[in-house]
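Recall the central idea of this unit: under ordinary conditions, the amino acid sequence of a chain determines the structure it adopts. In this exercise we apply that idea directly, starting from the sequence alone.
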Amino acid sequence: MTEEFEEEHEAQPLVEHLIELRNRLLWSLGAIIVVFLGLVAWANDIYAFVVTPLTSVVGEMQIIQPLDAFFTPFKLTFFVSVFITMPFLLFQVWAFIAPALYRTEKRLAVPILLSSIVLFYAGVAFAYFVVMPLIFTFFNAVAPDVATLVPDIAAVLGLILKLFFAFGLAFEIPVATVILIVAGVISPEGLAKKRPYVVVSCFVFGMLLTPPDIFSQAMLALPMWILFEVGIFFGKMLIKKDKNAENEEATSA
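Accordingly, the structure predicted from this sequence is:
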């Protein structure tokens, strides 16, 4: 009887965590659905706005599969809903893991959370305003003279979403770098020594996450490298700040 009580007592925290996780997921899904329902009436307008960097170059697009005319704008609207609710989604992640963090970790977690949101949107904006116009202009320029570039709306949506997520995640590199440094996994000097490997990895990821041309690969790889250097810089600042605080505590003691 005692053993059963102990097993139940030990299992209870796990059940509570699972319930908490379920509630956070439901709140996140509910937020996405609410935003989606609010935007779905303007699905075609949203699609027209997102593909503006392409239509300004090629002029028009085509529909190969009849169902794409209906589902493609709705699919884009759903992903736009995810982009819009990203701060709320990240807050749900923070609320789930916050009880397990120490006070010092919570102090760093809030700036990291806010930086993650800002950098993600910055990556998407960079992809939309800088990368997409350049890529579509390049594709149109290299097309043979005997052919006219008339992209399919479904294929274009897949390319755009791929670019958005690739650049949104790539711009999180400074956050990941700072976390590794602050957690003591590796020092800034150690990361600096691995710079050649990081540069090669940036181009490899650029090759995997972007269209198969060296131009778009470089457009992703170079910002990733620069953001890696930014992460090392801020990691050094945080370590220096912590050392100064420790020295002041030791002096006062």
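Residues 103-142 form the longest helix (40 residues).
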